[in-house]
Design goal:
The structure holds 2 protein chains of 2 kinds. Chain A is an alpha/beta fold. Helix content of chain A is 33%, strand content 27%. Chain A is built from 7 helices and 10 strands. A 6-stranded mixed beta sheet of chain A has the order 6-7-8-3-9-10. A 4-stranded antiparallel beta sheet of chain A has the order 2-1-4-5, with helices on one face. The two termini of chain A are 17 Å apart. Chain B has 21 helices and 11 strands. In chain B, helix 2 packs across helix 6 (221-254) and helix 2 (12-54) runs antiparallel to helix 16 (501-539). The radius of gyration of chain B is 30 Å and the shape is elongated. In chain B, 47% of the residues are buried. Classes of the chains: A alpha/beta, B alpha+beta. The A-B interface holds A 45-46, 48-49, 52, 54-55, 75, 78-83, 85-87, 89-90, 93-98, 102, 106-107, 109-110, 114-115, 138, 140, 154-155, 166 and B 307-310, 377-380, 383-384, 387-388, 390-392, 542-543, 546-553, 556, 631-633.
């Protein structure tokens, strides 16, 4: 077994007197797709935010590869998210003013890649995602599924170590959602990144390698599918 | 409609922030509108109180009296001295008088009565033929602190003009001020209206999301529109009331700004109730129209799907409108001379045409700047800024419109202030004694004799039309004036500069007026820039938050916001400046436009204005940090 690319150890997070995450454990290996499931309010989003360095857990450790990141400064964690992590949200959250290809190129440019090079590398992701010919379209001219695939390209273009997907199929119909999940899993497997999918949807969870179920902030199980 | 108000009430903290932004912008705009209309009301009231002694009196029917107006000085403050010659028995007295002053009687304002009581008699009281017989009431004064004396005299008195009725409207200096106020109102109204329109469109996205939910629940387009419009109209009407109330509270401070020789009664600067109702209704209607216009930009389908329409592009056809605008100005300016009494109106149309030109050209300039930025962008911030400008040039210009118009106003007023603001260079040392009709040598001899008798040291000589008196150092000028009052026979003993009080006053007043207009337009511009920037952050908060979650530094977003403000502002400002100078060209030569005073005024105003607007725009930074903080699903 390879070393985990992402580990959360004994993660606890409190908002005032309310404990939303309690001693949660998770490990994600390269190329592995892990679903985080649970009812509303079970702490799924808080776990994702702690793992991604968006929130600092009240207790516990977060390891990205060999780096323990929960103690890093806000700006350092922001830079880390831009360079080493990828994100896919429920709806694409693309910038409406930018053509699709520039939306994808943006993370590269933020990382210091020259614009011409960033756009060239971004354009390479369009064919594998079935988006050929849509590079110059604005988000408003794309369907929900197309928009979400552009968001996937944006998440993967920097070749991150871990991709976090928060309800990535929540805004799509079932068929489109399942195709999108398969595509995401295949691309992650190709790049060797780990993928953490937060979902309500049992069918989406079933398409993942493993499930971490959360109940009242505690990780209940880890099942290899 | 009730649902719209309920949604407004229960919208939560973010909704209230948005409402606060719209409300603040509308309140400031309304307040300035009320200030402008209050100024017009002020001139009307002043005319009703003192028009008979401030204008060019004209007899209509049988004259009620002859009037001669002179300007004296005491303690460096101007005193208006009015001779009421041979009042007709039975004629109604002037406003503020309970009876007509009889020959030999002097009526004074309360402030002058106080001065007479506290100043040594040989410096003031002895100038008048008798102690005050009465005190002029408020109804006959321009302002509480006005210094004025009205003396009844038996005729004939040289230069006395017959007045038909003291309540009759007169024209003259007051009319000139009124016309100038109309020009000032015109200069302010456009930026204020543009602010009101822009603020009603603020936070369109927030409304759109809620409207989409309503549409999903089966609400018809008309119902959805009613909900949206109710919210904006209610907020705008409430904010308009706040704006009018603010002007009401501000009136005492505004009353301290002297124009045409004195300050004001605070009450005169408050618009009439009918006008107030008109302002509130007008603002609410304008907000409704702007909200309806804003709704056209989004289409909410029956399934609640919000599709962002491609915003209207700024087409090159606007250039034709620009040509038309400049043509209208040139034609209006050429026909101005032949327009007679409607000169101000004709020139106003010319100014409005150039205003419209600035507004039409703005989005086109934004588009061109945006294209340039996109082509040359190497950094994400500049790419974002360029794309935003190119994507919605009209929306991007909206927050800049206020400052662009303010720069136009500055370009128009700065050379004018330099033209009229210069010193007259008149002598301010030699007092002139000109009783009229007397031999200068005889007047000089009488003056010398009088001063010697009272032991007042001064150099006296005969001038062209009277005596010239230079008080020795250490001699109070007011003592000399008072001592020479009998020699001057009722005319004021003043220096050449003091006698030009009206002309000098007009020049100073123009500078004061220009400053007030500039301060107001820049206030509008700053409010407009601040609220628009904040509104944009609120509208795009989800996308911005997710960008930051995904690792985009807030500094990059902030730099993009700065770039999309500064660059088009600089180009638009330059164009507006040129058009403003063009507007001033009929009154000011190129030499005055480039005079140090003009450049100083212009430069100072521009620097302060731009810094103010950038600061207001930067005020959205904490809001940006606040909305980008927190998790991906919070809202």
């Amino acid at each position: 077994m390879t070393r985990p690319v992402l580990r959360g150890i004994g993660l606890t997070h409190r908002y005032g007197a309310t404990t939303v995450l309690c001693d949660a454990e998770i490990a994600v290996h390269p190329g592995e797709v892990v679903a985080v499931t649970g009812p509303s309010g079970s702490g799924k989003s808080t776990l994702l935010h702690c793992l991604a360095g968006i929130l600092v857990p009240t207790e516990g450790q977060v390891w990205l590869g060999a780096d323990r990141i929960e103690g890093w400064s806000e700006s350092r964690r922001t830079a880390l998210r831009g360079a080493r992590l990828g994100f896919v949200f429920q709806s694409g959250h693309l910038l409406p003013e930018l053509p699709a290809v520039e939306n994808v190129a943006l993370p590269l440019m933020l990382g210091g890649v020259r614009r011409v090079e960033a756009v060239r590398r971004a354009a390479e992701w369009f064919a594998p995602l079935g988006l050929d010919g849509l590079q110059e379209r604005r988000p408003g001219q794309l369907s929900g599924g197309q928009e979400q695939r552009v968001a996937i390209a944006r998440a993967l273009v920097t070749e991150p170590e871990v991709v976090f997907a928060d309800e990535p199929t929540g805004a799509l119909d079932t068929g489109t959602g399942h195709r999108l999940m398969d595509l995401l899993a295949a691309l992650v497997a190709r790049t060797g990144a780990g993928l953490v999918v937060v979902t309500h949807d049992a069918e989406v969870a079933a398409r993942c390698h493993r499930t971490v179920a959360l109940r009242d902030g505690r990780t209940a199980s880890g099942v290899r599918s | 409609m009730r649902l719209g108000l309920r949604l407004l009430r229960t919208g939560g903290r973010r909704a209230w922030t948005a409402v606060g932004l719209v409300g603040a912008a509308v309140a400031v705009g309304t307040m300035l509108l009320a200030v402008a209309l209050g100024a017009v009301h002020g001139w009307d009231e002043r005319e009703a109180r003192t028009g008979w002694r401030d204008g060019d009196p004209r007899a209509v029917g049988t004259p009620a009296a002859g009037v001669r107006v002179d300007h004296d000085v005491v303690g460096g403050r101007p005193v208006q001295v009015v001779d009421l010659v041979d009042p007709r028995p039975g004629a109604a007295p002037p406003p503020g008088f309970d009876r007509m002053p009889a020959p030999g009687q002097v009526w004074v304002s309360p402030e002058l009565a106080g001065l007479i009581a506290t100043t040594p008699a040989d410096e003031l009281a002895a100038r008048f033929p008798a102690p005050p017989a009465g005190v002029i009431g408020e109804a006959g004064l321009r302002a509480p602190g006005e210094l004025v004396a009205v003396a009844g005299r038996a005729g004939p008195v040289e230069d006395a003009a017959p007045v038909g009725d003291f309540a009759t409207t007169t024209s003259g200096t007051l009319e000139l001020y009124r016309q100038l106020t109309y020009v000032a109102v015109t200069l302010m109204v456009f930026p204020v209206l543009s602010l009101l329109g822009a603020s009603a469109r603020l936070t369109a996205a927030r409304r759109t999301e809620r409207l989409a939910t309503l549409r999903l629940l089966g609400a018809s387009t008309a119902q959805v529109t009613a909900v949206a419009v109710t919210e904006t109209t209610a907020v705008a009407a409430a904010a308009a009331l706040v704006g009018v109330a603010a002007e009401w509270l501000l009136a005492p401070a505004l009353a301290g700004i002297p124009l045409a020789g004195s300050g004001w009664f605070a009450g005169d600067l408050r618009p009439a109730p009918v006008v107030v109702i008109g302002i509130v209704l007008g603002v609410a209607l304008l907000a409704t129209a702007a909200a309806l216009g804003g709704m056209r930009e989004v289409v909410v389908g029956p399934l609640g799907v919000v599709r962002r329409q491609r915003p209207g592009a700024a087409r090159l056809v606007r250039l034709l409108a620009v040509v038309a605008g400049v043509t209208v100005f040139v034609v209006a300016n050429r026909t101005r001379g032949a327009a007679g009494t409607i000169t101000g109106l004709v020139f106003g149309i010319g100014i409005l045409a150039l205003f419209a030109t600035v507004l039409l050209l703005g989005p086109l300039v934004v588009r061109i700047v945006g294209r340039g930025l996109v082509r040359s962008a190497r950094s994400p911030a500049r790419l974002l800024a360029g794309r935003r400008l190119l994507d919605d040039p009209r929306g991007a210009f909206r927050p800049l419109a206020g400052l662009t118009l303010a720069v136009f106003v500055a370009g128009f007023l700065a050379p004018l202030t330099a033209t009229v603001g210069g010193s007259t260079g008149a002598d301010d040392v030699t007092l002139r004694v000109r009783p009229g009709g007397a031999e200068p040598a005889a007047v000089a001899a009488a003056a010398r004799e009088r001063l010697d008798a009272l032991g007042i040291a001064a150099q006296v000589s005969a001038g062209r039309d009277g005596a010239l008196v230079v008080p020795d150092p250490g001699v109070a000028r007011d003592s000399v004036r008072t001592a020479l009052a009998p020699v001057a026979q009722g005319t004021a003993v003043v220096t050449a500069r003091e006698s030009e009080v009206v002309a000098i006053g007009l020049a100073t007043d123009l500078v004061t007026g220009a400053t007030v207009v500039l301060v107001a337009t820049f206030l509008v511009a700053a409010t407009s820039a601040g609220t628009s920037a904040a509104g944009r952050v609120l509208d795009q908060r989800r996308t911005l938050r997710h960008l930051v979650l995904a690792g985009t530094p807030v500094a990059v977003l902030d730099a993009a916001r700065r770039a999309e403000t500064v660059r088009p502002l600089v180009v638009n400002g330059a164009i507006a400046l040129v058009l403003g100078l063009l507007c001033a060209s009929p009154f000011a030569t190129a030499a005055t436009a480039l005079a140090p005073t003009a450049l100083l005024v212009l430069g100072g105003v521009l620097v302060v204005g731009v810094v103010l607007v950038l600061a207001a725009s930067s005020a959205s930074r904490p809001l940006l940090r606040s909305v980008t903080a927190g998790g991906s699903r919070e809202d």
